[in-house]
Structure formats: C-alpha cells, structure tokens
Design a protein that fits this description.
Elements: H1 3-15, H2 19-26, H3 33-42, E1 53-59, H4 63-76, E2 82-86, E3 102-103, H5 110-124, H6 126-129, E4 139-140, E5 143-147, H7 149-164, E6 169-172, H8 174-180, E7 191-195, E8 200-201, H9 204-217, E9 221-234, E10 249-258, E11 263-273, H10 279-285, E12 301-312, E13 326-328, E14 333-337, E15 344-348, H11 360-371, E16 379-391, E17 398-401, E18 408-412, H12 417-420, H13 422-435, H14 449-452
Parallel strand pairs: 1-2, 1-11, 2-9, 5-13, 11-18
Antiparallel strand pairs: 3-8, 4-8, 5-7, 6-7, 9-10, 10-11, 12-15, 12-16, 13-14, 14-15, 17-18
Helix pairs in contact: 4-9, 4-13, 5-13
Length: 463
C-alpha cells in the first residue's frame, strides 16, 4: 500500500472542500504541510466559518474536552450546539503519551476506581461507542505495584478496598515477586500487588482521534483558535453569599482569536475549561485568582513534563518475558514492555512538590538502576517527553462549576489519569450540564469548593 499516495489523495480531497479552507492550507506563512498532515492524523477537521453563538463552548479539544463534547452531542444531538476551541490542532503534546495509555484500577479513591471500571468497559466496546475502524490496539496485561516497608500497610488497605469494588487482585510476598520476576531487585520491597482483569495498555492517540472524528460526526464544531478573554457584565439583581450586593458580574461571552488573527465574540450558556496545563491561565481571564472574595483563589494547575526512555541492550538476552506487567514502583518509576519488542520503556512521575535542585532524570536513573539492575549495562535513551496538568493543591482532578461563575465548569488537573479516565469524566460533565447533577458516578468531591474550604482529596495509591 502506497501510504504517501493515499495521504496526498486525502489532503487534496480535504483542501478542495472550500476556497476559504484552500487559502488557509496553502499559505506557507500560516500553515505548513507538516501541520496539515498532523491535523489529518489527529482527526481534526477545520471549521469553515466562525460561530458567534453556542449552547456550550469547550476550551480544549484534547481527551477530556473531546469526551465532554462527545457525550453532550451523544445525548442531546441537534438539540444542543457545542463548539470546541483548540489552539493546537496537531495535538503535538498528545501524540505519544507513552505513560498515559494505561488502564489500571489500583486506586484508593472510590471515584477513581469507578472511573477506571467505566473506562475499561468503554474501551472494551470502543468500536460500538465510536467507529468500527477505531483500533486502540489494546494489550491486556497485569499491573504490578511494588511497595517499600513505608507503604506496605497502605498497599494492603488499598487492596482490601479494591476487593470491595469487585477488583481481582492479589498480594504478593517478596518471595513470590522474585519467583515470578527474577529480574526485579526486591531488596527494599516489602509487598507487591498484581491485578490482571481490565488492566492493560492502549494506543492513546487512536482513542483521541476516534473521539474527535465521532464528535464531529455528531455535529460538534471544532475551531483552531485561542481564547483570549471573557466578557463580564454587571448583574444588579443577583445576590450571592460572599459577594457585595450589585457587584456580581456574569460571563456569557468569550473572545477567541482565529488563525488568521480575527477576534470573534462567542456567546454561550455554559463554558467548560478543559485546557490541561493552560487551564490556570484561562481561569485568570475570568478573574479567578486575581479578583476578590470567591475569585481570590487561583486554579492551582501547573504544567509538568518528564522524559520517557527506552531501555535497550542489543545482542543480549532480555530477562523479561511477554507476560511482563506494567510496573509501578514506590519511587514513582514505571516500567512496561514495548509491545513485542525486546526492550522496556520507562519514566519517572514528577512529584507534586518537586525539588527544583534535583532533576527528574537524576531521580529516574537512581530508581531505575535500583529496581532493574540490568539497566546499568543497557543503553537508556530518551524517546519522547510526556506532559501532565498537575493540580498542585492535592494532585487530584478538579471537576464542576466555579462557585462564583456558576456557568463556568472545570475539567482539569487529572494528571496521568486524565487520558484513561476521560470517557467517564466527559460523561460526568455532560450530566452536570444536561441533568444538573451526577447521575452515574458521583464526582462531587472533585469540585473546586474543596480548595476554598481547604479539604484536600488525596489519592494514596502508594506511588
């Protein structure tokens, strides 16, 4: 099959959709052919006009934003107009996601367990939920959690809780770990836990592409643009606790800048901020974190990044087999087999309170050499960089309306869990908008309010 010929044919077919789009695609100063190719690969289709009205506007068209749009259109159809604003339609930051395409149920918060269980079901029926040609290349395998003595009791607590939710897992002693995985150093390990049902790896890029294409088929509008402001209007007749009478300002329009530098006002009933690590800067446009009273507390989202590495040892017999599970270590190190290849890939999850004097790569090499001694004589080379939207308050996602701007919803800060939990997160936001309440999984504890009253929600899944 001549892929270049097929791709060229698709590009030409795509270009002739309209003269307006043609002008955008061929202008070398605004759009390169690589950009076009990447947008086609991502499933993005450029809107030919710029809307000024939408029932719901979603800022961010990644996994969570596209899932929100999918569920809104899936449930409401033509009865609800949905616009998705995404500034990077090549989805460069979502193309690899080596550490994000994982489905696991090893959590301590019931909400995260429920979300994982739903995601497993959604992915299992991906062709029915999205399209017949969507192939997420799911590879079932176990997930092995390793705990030092410090975290052993917490691991046992988590396993007991998980069993109450019907999760099939098993505590492993050090001797059992050594017998099953002799290449793992267990000198500082107290216990392990293996879980095999509804666990595995999938192609996250295929999931994202499938969500975008299906959502557009259902009628959602995707715009390659950037939100640059919100318009706020005084509402003299609205009384709100903690807000001086007559001072409340409502947002019902935003301003977005198109790729040809037009600035368009878009009126909406509800706005969803699902912009990942950019969510904090978007929130500032609505005076969140810069105003007074309920607006004085910022959205605590930061961008964190870390390298993903390939561990290769050419000419040597690798000690791990095809049944190698996805491994999560107490130190934050993760390891998984790279498909059928005789090599591993790994990464180090950034700490919520990162010591800026210690590089993430230094921590990784120390953890890797300790847990997998063979890596000392292997070539360890970076293959990509993964990004996460870290909630620096408690490292758990923020979902639901802001207490001041009640028509401004957040769906951000879910870090590495955001990809695997995106089907359930999107469904939950759609429920809040359409039903005014959660009707399946109660995620009310993920709300912004917990930050205002200082009640952190900690996921203590030992890593």
């Amino acid at each position: 099959m001549n892929f270049s010929r097929i791709l060229t044919k698709n590009i030409k077919k795509y270009i002739v959709l309209s003269n307006r789009n043609y002008a955008k695609f061929v202008n070398p100063f605004t759009r390169t052919w690589d950009t076009i190719n990447n947008e086609i690969k991502s499933g993005f289709k450029q809107q030919s006009d710029y809307p000024e009205h939408a029932d719901v506007v979603i800022i961010g068209g990644g996994f969570i934003g596209s899932s929100v749009a999918y569920w809104l259109k899936n449930r409401a159809g033509e009865g609800l107009s949905v616009a998705v604003i995404e500034k990077d339609t090549t989805y460069e930051m979502c193309q690899n996601m080596h550490s994000h395409g994982i489905i696991t149920q090893h959590y301590s918060l019931p909400e995260n367990i429920y979300l994982s269980q739903y995601s497993a079901d959604f992915l299992r029926n991906i062709k029915k939920n999205l399209k017949e040609d969507v192939d997420i290349e799911f590879k079932p395998h176990g997930t092995l959690i390793l705990a030092s003595e410090k975290y052993a009791s917490k691991l046992e607590e988590n396993v007991s809780l998980q069993k109450e939710f019907g999760i099939s897992n098993k505590i492993l002693t050090v001797e059992e770990i050594e017998r099953l995985y002799p290449w793992i150093n267990t000198s500082d390990i107290k216990l392990g836990c293996i879980s095999k049902e509804s666990e595995g790896a999938f192609n996250s890029q295929s999931l994202l592409k499938g969500l975008i294409q299906k959502t557009q088929e259902l009628g959602a509008t995707y715009l390659k643009s950037e939100v640059i402001d919100f318009e706020m209007n005084p509402q003299q007749d609205i009384l709100m606790e903690g807000v001086a009478p007559g001072s409340f300002k409502k947002i019902n329009r935003l301003v977005y800048r198109t790729e040809d530098n037009q600035e368009i006002f878009l009126k909406f009933a509800v706005c969803v901020v699902a912009a990942g690590s950019d969510s904090e800067s978007v929130a500032k446009l609505a005076n969140i974190g810069t105003g007074g009273g309920l607006l004085s507390v910022p959205l605590p989202i930061e961008k964190r990044e870390y390298n993903v590495y390939s561990i290769e040892n050419e000419g040597s017999r690798m000690s791990f087999g095809l049944n190698t599970p996805f491994i999560m270590d107490t130190s934050g190190l993760w390891l998984k087999r790279d498909g059928l290849q005789k090599k591993l890939i790994c990464g180090q999850i950034p700490l919520i309170k990162q010591d800026k004097n210690i590089s993430n790569s230094d921590i990784l090499y120390s953890s890797l050499h300790n847990r997998y001694p063979e890596s000392v004589k292997s070539e360890v080379k970076p293959i990509s960089t993964d990004f996460i939207d870290c909630n620096t308050y408690d490292d758990t996602g923020i979902l639901g309306p802001h207490p001041y701007h009640t028509n401004l919803f957040f769906a951000t800060g879910f870090s590495r869990q955001g990809v695997q939990h995106s089907p359930g997160i999107g469904r939950a936001v759609a429920e809040l908008i359409i039903d005014c309440q959660f009707t399946t999984i109660d995620l009310s504890r993920f709300g912004f309010d917990r930050i205002l009253i200082d009640e952190p929600l900690i996921e203590s899944n030992v890593y």
